[in-house]
Each structure stands twice: as C-alpha cells, then as structure tokens.
Amino acid sequence: MSHAYGPVPRKEDARFIRGQGTYVDDIKLPGMLHGAILRSPLAHARIVAVDANAALAHPSVVAVLTGEDLAERGMAWMPTVFGDVQAVLATDKVRFQGQEVAFVVATDRYAARDALELIVVDYEPLPPLIDPLTALDPGAPVIREDLPDGNRVFDWTAGDKPATDAAFAAADVVVGCDMIYPRSHPAPLETCGAIADYDAVNGRLTLWSTSQAPHAHRVMYAALTGIPEHKIRIVSPDLGGGFGAKVPIYPGYLCAVAASQATGRPVKWVEDRSESLMSTAFARDYHMHGEIAATADGEILGLRARVLADHGAFNAAAQPSKFPAGFFHIFTGSYRTRAAYCEVTGVFTNKAPGGVAYSCSFRITEAVYLVERLTDMLARRLGMDPAELRMRNLLRPEQFPYTGPTGWQYDSGDYPRALRLALDMAGYDELRREQAERRARGEYMGIGLSFFTEGVGAGPRSHMDIMGLAMSDGADLRVHPTGKAVLAVSVQTQGQGHETTFAQLVAEELGLSPDDVDVVHGDTDRTPFGLGTYGSRSTPVSGAAAVVAARKVRERARLVAAAMFEASPDDLEWLDGKWRVRGDPDQALGIAEIAMAAHSTIELPTGIEGHLDASAVYNPPNLTFPFGAYICVTDVDPGTGEVKVRRFIAVDDCGVRINPMIVEGQVHRGLADGIGIALMQAISFDEIGNCLSGSFMDYLLPTSLECPSPELGATVTPSPHHPVGAKGIGESATVGSPPAVVNSVVDALAPFGVTHADMPLTPANVWLAIQAAGRLS
Ligand code: PCD
Q1: Distances from the Cα of 144 to the Cαs of 148, 349, 400, 441, in angstroms?
Q2: Ligand 1 pocket, 358 CB below 6 A?
Q3: From 278, 338, 451, 488, which residue has the greatest number of CB atoms within 10 Å?
Q4: Is 383 found in the same domain as 312?
Q5: Model pLDDT, residue 776
Q6: How many CB atoms lie within 10 A of CB 745?
C-alpha cells in the first residue's frame, strides 16, 4: 500500500515563497571582490593586443586577467563536457560575438563593469562564418585552426541504410521536407554565476556555483586547476531554474577561480541577462531533411533523416560521449517501421558554443519534431486523418519491450490507450466538425496532434558516460536514533522539487512520513558521487539509488526487529510500513522503534554492527521511456499571422507518479516551454554574426497570456526495470509540445496550401508562409 506518494505540498516552497531561498548571488563573503567579463563585439577576429593598463589604474580595480595571464596558469583553455576545448579568455582569436576576452576584478560590481570600458583590445577582423550550410564549403573561413578537420565537428550515422533504401523503394508514397529546429536558449530566470574562495594556506578551493552537476564539475576543476579533487568543494545552492543551462562549466566560473587565486580573496561573478543569452549554452540548431515512406493505406515503412547540426565555435554539447548527436536516432518515435537511417554532421560556426539538452533528453526533441511533422505531412498526402494514421502505426502494447530499428529498447508502453484518452478529452470528432464549420465561414482553426516517446535516465554504464565518467549515481541514507532520516544524493534540484519527492521515495520504503526525511544535495562535501541532474535522470537513476538504499535499511531493520521479537527474520513480513511477525500482525515494529534499538545496547545479531544507515550506487539497466499524446487547438488570424493557442490537451505517461502534483507542474512548465519555442523564440544572428536575441525584448518568454490552462490526463505504465516503476517526466512536455503546436498551425493554414512552416511561428512567419503558399481558399 502506498502511503507516502501523492500530491504532498512541496517542502521547499516554505522557504521559496517567504523569500528565504539562498541563490549564488545571495551569498556574500567577507572581503569578497566582484568580477566582470569583457566580451568580444566581433564574431571572428584575431586578437592583436589587449591593453589593460587604464583599467588597472581605476581606483576600485584590484586585478585584470587576460588570456595571456590565464595561459601562464595553464588555464586559458578548458575542457568542454563533450571532450572539445573552449577558450576561457581568448588568446589567439575571438570566435563568436560575446566571447570572453578579459576579466576585471574590483571592489564592487559597478566598478568592475565600468572598468571594462577602459580596456583597449586591438582586433583584426576575420570573415565570419554564420550560415552552417556553407561551413563545409571549400573556401569557408576556418574557425578552429587547432583542429585537423576544418569546420567539421563530426559525422555520425545510425540505422541500416540498405534496409531503409529498400523500404523506401517498396513504398507507394514518400513524403519529405526540410525543416529547421531553431537555436533556442534555456533562459533560466536565475542566470549563471559563481563565487570562488581559494584558501592558499590549506590549498582548498570552495566554489559556490550554479551547477546541475556538482560532482562532475569537481572532476573538471581538478583537471584544469591542478587542485587535488579532495581539496575542492563545489556548493550548488538553490537554483532559479537550470533547464540544461547549468550542466556545462563556463569561462566566468574559471575566471573567478583564477582571480581568487591571484588576489587571495573570494571573487564573485554573476552574468547578466544579455550575457546569458549571448554566450552561455544554446540548444537545438538542427537543420534537418526528413523523409517518410508508407503504403497507400498508411502503413509506415521507413524513415530517413539528414541533419546538419550547428555547434557554434566550440563543441560544448552536453550529452553522453558516445552519442555526438545525442539520442537523435530515436527518431522513429512511437511507430512501427521496417527500417530507419539517419546521418548527422556537426559543424563549427562563429556562434556561441553549447548544444545543451534544454529539456530535450539529448536531442530527442529534435527527433520527435521531425517524425511528428512528417507523420502529419503523410496524413495530409494520403488524405487520412492524422489521428487515424497515428493510431494505425503506433507500437502495440504487446510489442514491449520493443527494440527499434536504430537500436533503442523501449521498456514499456500502452500507446493506443494514451492517444484514445487524449482524443476523448479533446472531443476530437466534435473539434473536427467545428473546424469544418469555421472553415466554411472563413475562420482558420487548427487541430494538431503529436505522440512522443522519450528515453530518459541516462544511463547504463556499459555505453553511457560523460567525460569518461559512467552515469551512475550514489545515495547515502542515514537513520537517526529517533527514526528521522537524512538522504544525501548527487543530483541537484533546480526547482523541480527533489526535497519533496526524494523524501517521499524514502518514506514510502520505510513507513515514515515525508516530513521525517530531509534531503541533502548540491554540496560535494556532503553528498556521494554522481553525475547530476539533466536528461530527466534524477528520478530514474538517483531516485532508484535512494530506493535501493532505503530497501537496504529496511532489510537491516528486519534483522534488528527479529532480534527484538526473538523471532527468525524469515518469520517477519513488511506490512503497512512496519515489520510484523507473520500470523501475529499486532506484533509490529516501525522504523523509529527499530532505529532506537539499533542504536541501543541490546544485543544485535551477528553481521549487524549497529545503526541502520545504508548507501547505494545505482547503475540503471536501461533508460526509461515516458510517452504522451498531445493535442493543440489554435486559432490563426491570416490577416496578421497571429496564433492563439485555444486549448492544450496533454496525456502523459511517466510510469508510477511519486507526486502527481509535481508531475503536473512539470507538464505545465514544459507546455509553456514548447509554446514559446514553437511560436516565439529563436536565437538569431545577422550575416556578420551580431546576436539579435540578446534580451527578453527579442527573445520572448511565454506567459499566461500565450498559454491556455492545459487539460491534463494520465495513464500509468510502470517501467519494468525501475525499482518503483517510475519514469522521468521533467522534459516530456517540452519534447512533445512543439510539434503539436506547429501541426495545429499548419492544419489551420491548410486551406491556403501551406504544408510546412519553420518555427518560430511568429505573426510575421505565419503571414509569410501564407503568402509563399500563394493559394487563397
Ligand atoms: N517525478 C514524480 N514522478 C515521476 C517522475 C518524476 O513525482 N514518475 C518528479 C520528480 O521526483 C521530480 C520531478 O518530478 O521532482 C522531475 O523529475 P525527473 O523527470 O526525474 O527530472 P529531474 O532529473 O528531476 O529534473 C531534470 C529536468 C530537466 S532535464 C529539465 S531541463 C527541467 C525539468 O527538470 N529543468 C527544470 N524541470 C524543471 N523544473 C524546474 N522548476 N526548473 C528546472 O530548471 Mo535538462 O537536460 O537539464 O535540459
């Protein structure tokens, strides 16, 4: 019987709603200095000279670091999470607008900013490379002279080409399209920042920083600074959102470390909004050509895709190292197909580095968008209803576990049930009738579907690592004598409520109240090693570790309880949160009583040293595969191109829900993300590489005005390999919603002959799509 799962109010909210959270920028240390970064105004230029003398003469300036200064410390370049290198402060060239060139340290933040203007940099402009489609042209400017392969980052393929070609040859219909998943940005409300405090006497570095992966970061800092790992403490306090932006380390963090070492004082660096949008991790930027092959009656036979991935100036993608295109090759989505094949080429351009998994489970977002757009196009070509076409091709429940044509093994699913529920909730047939009536009146209403499958919870250590570190996570569980527990985990919440849900996981296993369990995270001195939070992996991996540790505690408690009952452990059963003597359920001991006994002087059975504490390291056997069926209803004004999202129906299946309220909150958030991406957002550049999206005036965040109150539904198909059957949910709605929105808008515009339009579907882009189609109804 579950007693701890359920819509428990979030424990962390008590401090957040009272303004008592502690974010990096709230921390003030005695003698702390402030750093600011001088950034390149040019996208591509050789650095001839940097003159910092005037800045150094500023009365409040304590130090200025240039690339040369860092080079002397061996810190001018840093590793990226994907095994490339990235300039911390540029020495040779600048490679994107906004790149870090110098670091000023002053007694206050304003003086540091002012002094930036006193630094004189002599740049020799170089031709910029902005359009990824020209990156591999013979005459293209070379961005990375340090690498052998010109502007090519990687070539990567997955699937079976001959089998796919054969499937296409056998098809009655082939539909193809070029589509762009634009460069987007996670844009957490709290930007990135750090405070470095180097203690030269003890050789210890304490770094407070906005980090989704404190332990992995510690390994990187150790390699880069030469400070031994056990002398480095990373503290990631409350985070105001992460969304993947806080997975990499950034030059500003390292500048703070070097500056603290140089000045002997703590140094804080916090980026502003424009710096965040222009220089920290972008996401997506996939230029795709997709094709789908089918029979005349709508049976999907094959899929293929060719992708050009714009990686910016350094390959700072954050995803398991054996997968340069992330998990894009899950692009057959939720459908049966005979074969599939994809080719992805990554290129360098003069843009900010990144390629982070902004709510995308490592590029599954791009993959879902591709297959869901193609499925809709196929339906249109065949004159079939898109819901019917999907229903016909969805994997069937009896096919699970299902191994797809590009190698994924989906753990569990009942797809038709989820789609049926979404159609029922939407009143689909009625919506189609309404659409026909409106069309007859010259009103443009769209109904867009998407069905997605994600793979989250990286990952099995046999084939998933980041920087060579296998993706396992530890959990330490201590049970105090009075039965109150403290769980220490390696992952780090950014707002998604781990302090509540992880307490629920432990409480459920031990028959405690979630209030009796505190969760410690975000401090490498107090938590076990693990790879951190992203790719919706906390619940699948670290949550599993917490459950395994709790079950170890429960087994120890069984032995102690047996000694207390003077019974054999085999005669005990765990029932209703207590150990009981089988056949005599009134004889019962809860964890609190057993914990007190384990700490007392009673004689314990051999093999039990005392205490109930336990720890675990969890190596997931597979990813978990959440899925969902989404329906978006839009109204489009063809005169202005304005899109209104009228309704959004979302049925999600993330297996067993620990806290359904938090799960729904995650879905709300992800739907807003997806509406923003589909309708409003792109980090764009002019032809010489000026970033045109450096503020929230140009890079729009969706608000309640653009987002309807979503109508949520749930099905529960437990993961067979997760200890409690849970799958991740954090990114699902961001993955699943953009294609539903775009399919809806394109459906609305069908009478004009519009078959596709690239995101973001801003009023201007919608209007242009109507004009380009050139057919009025
Ligand atoms: N859950 C439950 N149940 C289930 C699942 C889940 O309850 N079945 C819950 C948990 O526990 C948590 C949440 O829910 O609390 C979530 O989870 P998951 O799915 O596991 O996830 P995680 O790992 O925790 O997290 C992560 C994610 C991500 S990834 C992202 S982007 C985003 C999301 O998360 N971010 C964020 N969400 C969020 N929210 C918030 N508020 N904030 C943020 O920032 Mo990446 O890769 O990083 O890009």
Answers
A1: 8, 9, 45, 57
A2: yes
A3: 451
A4: yes
A5: 57
A6: 28
Question: Which strands sit side by side in the sheet containing 642-653, from one edge to the other?
Answer: 444-453, 627-637, 642-653, 711-714
208 falls within a domain: yes
- Amino acid identity, position 82: F
pLDDT, the chain, mean? 97
Number of independent structural domains in the chain: 3
Q: Residue 465: in which H helix or E strand, if any?
A: strand 465-466
Unique residue bearing structure tokens 């989505």? 333
The answer to which of 59-68, 191-200, 315-324, 386-395 has the lowest mean pLDDT is 315-324
What is the domain extent for residue 540? 472-618
CATH number of the domain bearing residue 217:
3.90.1170.50
Laid out side by side, the sheet with 578-581 consists of 572-575, 578-581, 584-589
Per-residue pLDDT, 3: 87
Mean pLDDT across the stretch 242-247?
Answer: 97
170 touches 301 (CB < 8 A): yes
- Distance between CA 640 and CA 448 in Å, rounded? 21
From 563, 586, 618, give the residue that closes a domain.
618
ipTM: 0.99
606 and 636 fall within a common domain: no
Give every CB contact of residue 266 below 8 A, 6+ residues apart in sequence: 29, 30, 31, 32, 33, 195, 196, 197, 260
Confidence check: pLDDT of 507 > 80: yes
- Ligand 1: centre distance to CA 2 (Å): 22
Closest Cα to atom 25, ligand 1: which residue? 536
Same domain, 271 and 287: no
Single out the residue of 41, 49, 61, 53 nearest to residue 115, CA to CA.
Answer: 61
CA 587–ligand 1 middle distance (angstroms): 40
Residues 298 and 427 in one domain: yes
CA angle 224, 211, 283 (to 5 degrees): 95
Same domain, 605 and 662: no
CATH of the domain at 674: 3.30.365.10
Residue 101 lies in a domain: yes
* Shared-domain flag, residues 385 and 417: yes
Ligand 1 pocket, residue 368 CB under 6 Å: no
Map residue 106 onto helix, strand or coil.
strand
Burial call 487-498: b when 16+ CB within 10 Å, e when fewer = bbbbbbbbbbbb
pTM higher than 0.95 for the full model? Answer: yes
Tell me: do 638 and 509 sit in the same domain.
no
Same-domain pairing of 349 and 405 = yes
Q: Given pLDDT bands bounded at 50, 70 and 90, which one contains residue 318?
A: confident
Instruction: Decide which of 618, 648, 679 is a domain's last residue.
Output: 618
Domain contains 466: no
User: For residue 411, how far is its CA from the centre of ligand 1 (angstroms)?
Assistant: 20
DSSP 617: E
Q: Is the CB of 734 under 6 A from ligand 1?
A: no
In a domain, 176, yes or no: no
Pairing of the two strands 642-653 and 711-714: parallel
